[in-house]
Sequence to fold (157 residues):
Amino acid sequence: MTTNTICLWYEHDAQEAATFYAKTFPQSSIGAIHHAPTDYPGGKAGDAITVEFTVVGIPCIGLNGGSQFRHSEAFSFQIATGDQEETDRYWNAIVGNGGQESHCGWCKDKWGISWQITPRVLTDALATGGDVARRAFEAMMPMTKIDVATIEAAVRG
Fold:
């Protein structure tokens, strides 16, 4: 039994979001769906109020809590990718499903959750430090989706 879970607030479509995540990312699935026993702010008795799901192995609960609170970039899922094809696949799935691009490998899904789609070549370069990290960082800064070949070229100098 999981004792710690991330709770994500959705207006009314946690199940739709969980379904998208389960279809898009490995080690992702939908668990139990709980329905409200009575009317509540933003919903009616019988509506799905919480949805248990897993995203890349991380247990989450989606709470359909109404429009009172919004997501911010202060929370994001970081997805490590192995190559450009994997980077493109996740980026395009999120942005192509009503999401929006941001900077430096960040994008936001249509529910407002922020995602960092980050090739390992970038995180490895940044962890190396020194001139390698500086070159990789400078190459990344003007990007939206990370271009692996450009980062690899920056690493090589």
